[in-house]
Amino acid sequence: MYEGYKKYIPFQPVKLPDRTWPDKVITKAPIWCSVDLRDGNQALIDPMNLEEKLKFFKLLVDVGFKEIEIGFPSASETEYEICRTLIERDLIPDDVTIQVLVQCRPHLIQRTFEAIDGAKNVIVHFYNSTSTLQRKVVFKTDMQGVIDIAVEGAKLVRELTEKEIARTGANIRYEYSPESFSGTEIDNAVEICERVLETLGATPEKKVILNLPNTVEMSTPNTHADQIEYFCRHLKNRESAIISLHPHNDRGCGTAATELGIMAGAERVEGTLFGNGERTGNADIMNVAMNMYSQGVDPELDFSDIRHIRQVYEECTKMKVHPRHPYAGDLVFTAFSGSHQDAINKGVQYMQQSGTPYWEVPYLPIDPADVGRKYEPIIRINSQSGKGGAAFVMQQTFGYELPKAMHPEFGALVKAACDKAGRELKAEEIFDIFRTHYLEVKAPYNLKSYKLYEENTEENKPAVVHFEGNLRFGHQDHPLSATGNGPIDAFFNAIRGIGITDYSFVSYSEHAVGSGADTQALSYIQLKTSQGKTIFGVGMDHNISLASIKGIICAINRAVSDNG
Ligand code: KIV
Ligand code: ZN
């Protein structure tokens, strides 16, 4: 029996029957604070070295973060050095505030102030743990003991800040975290934060950031939202505080908890790119921001080159982004199912034809181009992909507009190749199938020479087209000569003259490929054999008439050699 579950205590939600957050909608980006260089970094098997941290810091600035927690300068010499390097090398843009984390311990607070000497904009972030469990098993103290630690910490932080401002004029702000907020009795969390606000002299003009960590995610995200709404409603000097979220992801709901927390009244979010961080990680800021983006809300962060962001992230952290990671994973803009592919195809066509200003493509919540991804990898073809899928790849990736009637024929060729390979095919492999079966079919019939010209026999009558040439087959050249009402008709008449009579013409379509001097005509010719089978041929040439004639020869060659 699997009975271990009996040892777990169910999470007790706060009582908030008149909650208002479920009716709220996110219409504005919160203040974002990246904690990649601290919470994310401390959770790496190999924490970043100086060079990696500097590279990551630049990436965060480029993405648009205005608040960046750079580390825990009092925790180690390396952390201290990173802070000093950023300041001394003048690497912090004027509109970016660095944030430094410190426990509520006097010697660590002192050292933190030494580390930030010379910085223009700083958030001093101090914290102590307040949770019921930590009070019981770690600190063995009551709530008053924990409040005293926070208040003493706040006094020292304020004193050192005021001295530093008087000395250097730096812009120093405060942040306090009741660590393990979500595991703290909610009224205790409110009380300790009120005491800290008072001690720091918070006012609506000099707001203090109150960061409410979901240090270990222990409940459903709606319960987290209730905690945030309850806190915002009960905090006495709410207007003197900026409420910040710091969700972790232990239950895999970090993104949801962040979104519901914003709906519940939070104005700021701490998290990391791709959700790196302790255990299962922190809130994934890229995910939350792109979710907003997909709802028509400006996230105020720029993920337009997600491959580059991901590359720097992977290089610095040595972590890998999962192939199914929202917006960033290798597979998130693919569709393996044929019905999905058909719907995507139709959505793209609808957008092109209707000129709609909105993104209206089924199965793709955002335009892949918005994160620097291309349509090219959207569809990978497997044996279940359906007849439209391969044609879609030909159109989107290579610009070949196969006529609709040709889709089943080409789809069957691709399906057979998939079955043979036992895996899905890449776009290039699909093109290879097209090349082998349509562009490189040269036998048994081969046009060795040709001449086409028009003749006007009578005024106001259509011109007569003459075709003359040589068709090689059976190791012999066969002279061709006939007239018709157009190049295709003349060629058909010419081959009938040498006994090739098994084929009738069904349909023709053509378009240009390439550009400038390289532009060629691509003709798709559908013929019917005397046994009633239809077959396509493709011809490509700079000369549009010759492209059609090549297409006819291709179709006949395919019929004869059973290349179809
Ligand atoms: O998760 C957490 O509680 C933290 C605090 C130090 C803010 O990282
Ligand atoms: Zn954390």
Structure in words:
With 564 residues, the protein is α/β, with parallel strands linked by helices. It folds into three domains: 15-317, TIM Barrel (Alpha-Beta Barrel); 338-439, no CATH class; 446-563, Double Stranded RNA Binding Domain. It has 17 helices and 14 strands. It has helices at residues 36-42, 50-63, 77-88, 106-115, 132-139, 143-168, 186-200, 221-234, 254-263, 285-293, 306-317, 338-354, 387-398, 407-421, 427-439, 487-497, 544-561, and strands spanning 31-34, 67-71, 97-103, 121-129, 171-179, 208-214, 241-247, 268-271, 446-455, 464-473, 476-484, 503-513, 520-529, 534-541. It has an eight-stranded parallel beta barrel, surrounded by eight helices. A three-stranded antiparallel beta sheet has the order 9-10-11, with helices on one face. Strands 12-13-14 form a three-stranded antiparallel beta sheet. Strand 2, helix 3 (77-88) and strand 3 (97-103) form a beta-alpha-beta unit. Helix 2 (50-63) packs antiparallel against helix 11 (306-317) and helix 4 (106-115) packs parallel to helix 6. The longest helix has 26 residues, at 143-168. It starts with 30 loop residues before the first strand and ends with a helix. The structure holds 3-methyl-2-oxobutanoic acid and zinc ion. The site of 3-methyl-2-oxobutanoic acid has 9 residues, from strand 5 and strand 6.
Q: Please, what is the oligomeric state?
A: single chain
The secondary structure category is alpha/beta
CATH topology term of the largest domain: TIM Barrel
Averaging pLDDT over every residue, what do you get?
A: 94
CATH superfamily of the largest domain: Aldolase class I
Low-confidence stretches: none
Number of domains: 3
CATH secondary-structure class of the largest domain: Alpha Beta
Beta-strand percentage range: 15-25%
The helix fraction, in percent, is 25-40%
Please count the beta strands (DSSP E, at least 2 residues each).
14
- Terminal CA distance reads 59 Å
Count of runs of 4 or more consecutive helical residues: 17
CATH architecture of the largest domain: Alpha-Beta Barrel
Radius of gyration: 34 Å
Shape: elongated
